[in-house]
## 1
Amino acid sequence: MPRSVRCSALSASLLAEQVLNGLQLGVMLFLMAAGLTLVFGVMGLINLAHGSLYMVGAFACAATAAATGSFWLGLAASLAAAAAAGALVEIAVLRRLYARDHLDQVLATFALILMFSEATRWLFGSFPLYLDVPRSLAGAVELPFGIRYPLYRLMIIGVGLAVALGLFWLIGRTRLGVRIRAGEADREMIAALGVDIARLYTLVFALGAALAGLAGALVGTLQSVQVGMGEPVLILAFVVIVIGGIGSIKGALVGALLVGVTDTLGRALLPSALGAFMEPSGATAVGSAIASMLIYVLMALVLVVRPAGLFGARA
Amino acid sequence: MIPERWLNVALAAGLLAVPLLAVAAGETFTVTLATKVAILGLAGAGLNLALGYGGLVSFGHAAFFGLGGYAAGILASHGIVSMPAIWPVAIATGGLAALAIGALSLRTTGVYFIMTTLAFGQMVYYFAVSWPAYGGEDGLPIYVRNRFSGLDTLDPIQFFALAYVLLLAALALTARIAASRFGLALAGARQNPARLQAVGIRRYGIALTAFVISGAITGLAGALYADLNRFVSPAMLSWQTSGELLVFVILGGTGRLWGPVAGAALYVTLEHWLGGVSDYWRFLLGLLLLGVVLFARGGVIGLLSGPPRHG
């Protein structure tokens, strides 16, 4: 095989791997964004503490896995802990804020971030915890066209897409979904029709929290589990929602995949692409600086063209 | 209820008296704390113009604060160490950044605006972290505090005086703006955009102008803060800083002239005091903030002098 052809085949498989990495980041962001967008759509609440629930999930998984030696028990614990923390916070604090303006919600949930972070630091200390990939998912798999990819990351993509399908089914096809959509449209009316609206809100909130906890647990094996891990992801999830449109699960999915792939490909390709025009060290610096800004540029473009997001209800 | 005017006078006098007494008692650390209050109050005053008067919930003001700080740090690293030369640059930097971010973010309203400003703030943060020329993640030290002719800026009380005068100037400007035709239009943009439009005023231009002035004031505060710490780092640009600036304004009283100063004073005092009580003082701070949101709406000034005469 001539050298140039082999070279392009190699870079094609590298590119495919980066696209898969982007999808993996994307579905993880989707798990976060779906909860945020549901809570905002149904209750009209902007919840900054969603990142804390992600952190709770990661810590619950790491602590349970360390105690029992089973990642899968850890995963179950992360779902339960995040859903419980979410339900508790909703009942104790957030339900008083639904009728308030966004400023009060921002301040109260900012206060909750401080409390969650400090409580976690008190419980687990300032040093990061580490989670191992379960043995059954360690190693890489051979994909078509000679691409090798870690099985665990492939599993995250699969779980994310399965959750997305599950959510579409839940919202679109079930009785609970009908109530959630009705709650978005007119909360007084469905309360008058005999739906226990307070319980519905707690349920929706716990569902969103569980998704955030799941995301935290799944990513905990790829990164270190530490206090403050949730907020950078939360802000990325906000970018996703602004791009996709608030209240739309479909928008959250499309936005999350767009953001995930753009960010990953930008970081992987820009420095070397710029290397074609300038000397390598400068290209790396400029490339990584620009790559870190790419998704915000994407958000700015969407804001110019469609201020309410790609799938936003309001034009 | 104490009339707000008296409360403002008391705050102004108190912020001046504390460092003067501290100098007399030889407590220079207290002077530094008072300087911090004046500078953070100035940053909050900038945010208050957008948030309190214009109803624009910006979660990205750390961008203007940090860029002002970087303007001071970068100029100092190139040998420009005169504060009267640095300040206009910091003001312009904050204002221009606010123009760019505001022009895009103000296409949205409500919760979208909060998320967009937060995201653009984060963009500036990541840029500062990954751009190595001026320290990147490690930040940029300012070896000797920048100079102001006729004063010794390294003397804490003289540096405090500079910050205090700038704070008074910014508050005077805010009061002028609030009482002007523009200020009335801005209040209209907050209270009822549809009616504002019906009398022939576009919300976008009014809100963007307020946002730019707001960013410029916060940028100036950033330059002073960099000089106070003799250090600039991406931490000044982080989302936590944006959150703290919001906390100053809301804790003191949103849309009240001296609210940000009262909020910053309370915050700095609590930070100092609770920090001595427990390593986990941020938990207590969170609890207190939650209490303020749920039970003491209107902040310190609202609590002491009641709701504003006309909201």
## 2
Amino acid sequence: MKTLSYSITGIGTAVESVSINESYSTQVSRCSIKCTSHSLSLGDSITVGIGYTGDTPTVFKGYVTGIADEILPGIHEISCQDVLWRAAQHWIVATDLANPFRRTNIAVEDLIGDLLAEAGITNYSGDSPGFTLATGVQPAEFQLVSSLDACNQVADIVAWHIYADQGGTVHFKNIIPEPGSSSASFVTGTSGTIITANQKINTDNLRNKVVVFGYPPITAEAHASSSYLPAGFYKTAIIASPLIDTQSMADGTASYNLNKWNRAAYSIDIEVEGDPDLHARQTVSVTESFTGASGDWFVYDVTHDFQKQYITRMTLVK
Amino acid sequence: MGVSVYVNGSDISDYVVSVERSHSLCRPISTATIYHTWDTGGFSTYEPVVIYEDGTKVFTGYTQEISVKRMNPELYILAKDPLIRAADTWIDTEIVTNQEWLIYWLSYFLNLSGVSFTAGTTTNKYMPPNTSWQIGSAYEHIVTLSKMLGWYIFSDPDGIIHVQDVSIGASSKTIATKSNILNFKRARSLDRARNATIVFGYGNLFSKQTTTVAGISDERVAVMASPLVGTQALADELAVTMLADFSKIGDEKNAKITGDPNLKIADTVTVKERFSKTNQPCLVTSIESRYQETYEMDITLDERCPSFWGYAPYPSGYYGAGSGIYKSTWGGGLYVLFSGEWNPINGNLPETAKQVYWFDVDESVIFAATAVGLYRSMDLGESYTKIPLTIPSGVYTQTEMVPIGVEIDKVEPNIVWAVAYNTAVVGVYRTEDFGETWECIGL
């Protein structure tokens, strides 16, 4: 029989519950800890490990951003956000309007690294999409925008993704919400770990046409039919950025984003026995015959609920 | 029960079942709901209401909503404090200002509403030049002015409206566990805290102020930009004032306490609560009171109103900023930023047209939607021509439309879109020849 165990910075043995949420769509992961005592202050770094005796891997690393104390029932609630919280809160503002944050002839991954560094984030690993920005007359400039919004503007050009892992490293990667190589398996039945599963499909986020507006007069468009939509019907996404300053880059942006968004959202909401090694953006394998959900799935959203029992709730998509 | 209620001078206390009150510095109009069994009807709206709890006056206002469902045993009267008069006072003509002090206009709109009030004092806050008060309620203008002054609005038990600075002062009461606290929650947060402020003003002037905020290691900036900030001294003052507010860490407390008719919003109370380590004076920012079989209050202390700090909202304006062109109207005309300078591009625009709702620029072409019509310049503001937007006569009596928005197509600048309205309809217009001819494509 497994025994629950945890290791959390600044909270000895006083933990009542832990809830950690990571999501592909919500870049800044959050953690909420309810406890009866602690030694934490706002802004403190915090590392959370949960699991079972002898196996409490780090599931979250970030900062304490809120502390609430309620005398009945005598509980402190510690709210935390991961390292990208710094980028979300940091505004890029130059007082010399003639010299704002500006880069020229810079690789996409390096520009994102520089923008994160503005917010004091240096633990960064960026893959290379092979794009160089601001090679013409138009520099890449950012003013009166948060560091995270600026990073996302750049990442959207190549339809890539920015996130912080559970160890506090920020990644810039090509991650599309579709299954890749499976890292874990879940099976129903008495020997399996699936508690509940509910499958559904919708086209809310499907886009089968992408229009790109770059540095004038550059534009590009890509579209494709979708078996999930009526014939000849297009749902359109717009990407607009003066950083797109060549026609080939605009064409690539349209193509990459079409590939990213032209898909229906098959999803399963699934509850499994708590597993601290499960994280958003992984691929997992499911064997579940009743809902027809068997197969590989992308972990779109994961919540670890850890209290008297430990359950991992996931939204899986493909 | 220990509640006395008078409606239009009549004592209905014997029929009162319960009284709920709501007062908040962040939501200026206080309300009281009186549940009663006075089933004879006869109440009307805007009748004076006075409420006493345990012999102390706690609310003065007017009836606003009356339940007369005779089959419903829980009849009620909803009353609001006298500031409701300002919400119901509609300014139906444009009022042009002449650089008077803000406090002048605050008093003007409060007097116009017919409320009794007391306002704080200020010496150096003027209205911007060439601005005007547009159609709207007096309440909206009063709220705007109070934000520009950094003040709060609230009513006292006698129904007097207070418009003034509010801060922690001398403590008038103590609330404590094992005494009058029934439950207590304290929530600290870094969400809105900033350790730097920058105010951009006219031309190249700016002011930056920094401080240290516990828990924040990198620089986090709150920014205000306005060409109406015309002096370094004013920019410095605003940056310092902003920083004083934004450098505070959110530290809100919510308490359930035993009822106390002498506790009012904007009071300072000393809190002694060991679990949350709260042992300090706090500002009472909201009170939700219930007097029924028991008398309890949910109070909020040190709440940060989301929109409290707001020097920027001018009476009728719009501000937008991009990387190269800064748009600024505020009723003062048009400005474009070149090399860090705010340069007016008003050309021959008549004074009445400097009340600009929106404008757009492409190369040397400017379209400006103003209070007196759509204007176009083909020479970057050297000269302007008025372009009429109309609807066919015979259908509506008023055929001239007032533009409220205009947008030049960024790919094909000969295409321009405009939105306009009159008292009857709203219309969307489109031109493909730089505004020579327009097509109304929808009403």
## 3
Amino acid sequence: MSLNVSKPRSIATQLVLLFTLASALLLCCGLGILYSIAIGHAFEEDNEVLADKVAAIRRDLGNAGGPASLGDELRVERAGERAAYWVRVSDSAGGVIAESPGMSEMLPTNLFPAAQSPNARLAAPKDLRKGGKLFALLATTEEAGGRSYLLQVAQDRSLDDRFRWKFGALLAGLLGFGILASALIAINVAKRGLRPLTDLTHSLERVGPKRLSERVPVEGWPRELQPLAVAFDEMLDRLEDSFTRLSQFSADLAHELRTPIANLRGEAEVALTRPRTSDEYREVIESSVGECQRLSGLIDKLLFLARAEAADDAVERSIFDGPVAIEKIVGYYETIAEEREITIERTGEGEIYAEPLLFGRALSNLLENALRFTPDGGKIAIALHVTASAAEVSVADTGSGISPEHLPRVFDRFYRVDSSRSSQGTGLGLALVKSITDLHGGSATMKSTEAHGTTVTLSFPRETANHG
Amino acid sequence: MRIEDLEIDTRRHRASRSGRALNLSPKEFLLLKHLARSAGEVVSRTEIVGQVWDMNFEPETNVVDVVVRRLRAKVDDPFQVKLVHTIRGVGYVLKRE
């Protein structure tokens, strides 16, 4: 397996590894300290016993008998002594005066370390392994009766050595068992801790287009995972909402297209039922053209909405004078407003940072709606309010208003307040307005009081002005 | 500009027919001027919206028809010969019958 093929990391594995590592470290430290204390203590004791032995030999040498009185101390194994000792006494020239039996073969003189001064406290003996046994070797000098002796003493420490090995093996076994146990505990804990994730996966697996109402039960979750469950639920809410809107939209779209196409077909079929004059044909064709124009207008708007929704790059904005841009759009509708004795009032000034054509289109859609819902002789007020952060344009009419239950959906495509689908308007106007402000990172909001009128406010933010 | 007995003075923004001055609003004048410029050819509503109101899209509300109706009332109604003709579903044309 090459290195760049990385398997996904597993939280459980990581948890188990870390937990096991931590407990292994802890166990190692604890058992290591225990081992060194116990073994250190055992060898400390050995050293003391060895020093006692040396002192005893010195005492014997100092006695009137000299080296000859050593007889008993030279015996390798004596009653009352735990370990075996070998003792050799030589004169200053190197000649052996006395030694334990078999010592010259077992531990010749040259194996011993250099002699230590007799006055100083005895240093640690030299360890030597020979013939499967562990010896502690010590050499020192002694002045007695005007003569200088070299003392070489060996202590058999094989018993302690075996104890050390046994103890070490026991501790190692303990360590192994401890690591295994902690790994098992860790695996168990990790599994138990991650079980809610499996549950979550199962409940998400049940979610599908037909079962968008499936929710993750929040109760009984560990505290850490509750935000996740809540976030999933919120995501599902949004998805369900979009999905419902989308299904509604395609149903509406089919409806919208059906009527004009049925009209086109009906007219053409009726025209073909019998021979007609060219004027009659002309009339049918003219009417068809009108119907087709409505259809292509509808499709253009749908395309615009689709593109606006898919656009991930910001629109190309520029700064322009607000009142001038508003005047241009109002100029178009003034003729109609005049005929219906509706006054269009303009207030406010300042610059707007937006894509000018889209701004005009949004405002024109708002004016169309306002004109549609304002009774003859009414008033429409356009107010521009420019702050440091945004330019807000609001269009208020003195129409009949919209009841509150419609407000959340007025910006939806094909949503009409009067469900009768009156021939007026495509039902896309406000959706278009909303998508234009969305493209600008702004907002479109509607306030309405029944019997008093409706106000739609568009906000075009300025803060991205330095975006280039 | 002159089409039949219709005279358009683009410099002074005035129009007259058979020597009688027509009292046109600015938009009506712009519309007449634009129709006269392509006299004999059909001018579409979208084109008119662009030329007269400087708008690059065609709003749902049809204002062109309203202004054309008003223009007709001043240019054609008092006279025997009609100049402004509707091509249904397409647009308008300025010509003699």
